[in-house]
Amino acid sequence: MNSPLPVILKRDCPVIRIPAGSADTIVAGTEVHIAQTLGGSYTIQAPGGLFRVAPQDADALGFEVEKATAPSTNGPVNEDLVWQTLRTCFDPEIPVNIVDLGLVYDMKLSPLSNGGSRVDVKMTLTAPGCGMGPAIAGDAQVKLLNLDGVEDATVEVVWDPPWHHSMITPEGKRVLGLE
Predict the structure, then answer these.
(1) Treating both helix axes as pointing N-terminal to C-terminal, what angle do 79-86 and 133-145 enclose, rounded to 10 degrees?
(2) Could you report the per-residue pLDDT of 23-69, keeping only the tens digit for each?
(3) Do 99 and 145 sit in the same domain of this protein?
(4) Under a CB-based contact definition with an 8 Å cutoff, are residues 126 and 96 in contact?
(5) pTM score of the predicted model
(6) Segments forming the whole domain that contains residue 126
(7) Percentages of the chain per state (helix, strand, coil), in multiples of 5
(8) SS3 for 174?
């Protein structure tokens, strides 16, 4: 979503600087432009560069904070639901989800003795110097933990094998206009 008109921050807003991944705050009254809004978070252009605004801070942009909801299951969590959930996670600079971008290398769904499930994900980033890894992995972990039946989830950023554009799925290539 592009915002041709500026948005004025309604309150001080915690942000993550892109691509450094460092935490910062943009003060109330600052004029920003929304560059992307996918997966519940916002990428904004503000003085000093690009920043990620978390879903819980949407009110600072003048939007309603939506309660985090995960797809409900009709039974135990399954792999399809986990993959569907991972497809709601986005790199804040690229309008393709982390699965179709080819960033998720491995996903394991394991049963726990209490009847719940554990999810372990190994993912990478498009470049080793990108500081957004913790933010993207954290977003994925929170979304997985919101799934009914998921009791534990880890999302680990790995660098082997190195990511390459050939890992983008056909759907990702379509979104990026690479077909």
Answers:
(1) 140
(2) 999 999 999 999 999 999 999 999 999 999 999 999 999 998 876 55
(3) yes
(4) no
(5) 0.87
(6) 79-176
(7) 20, 30, 45
(8) helix
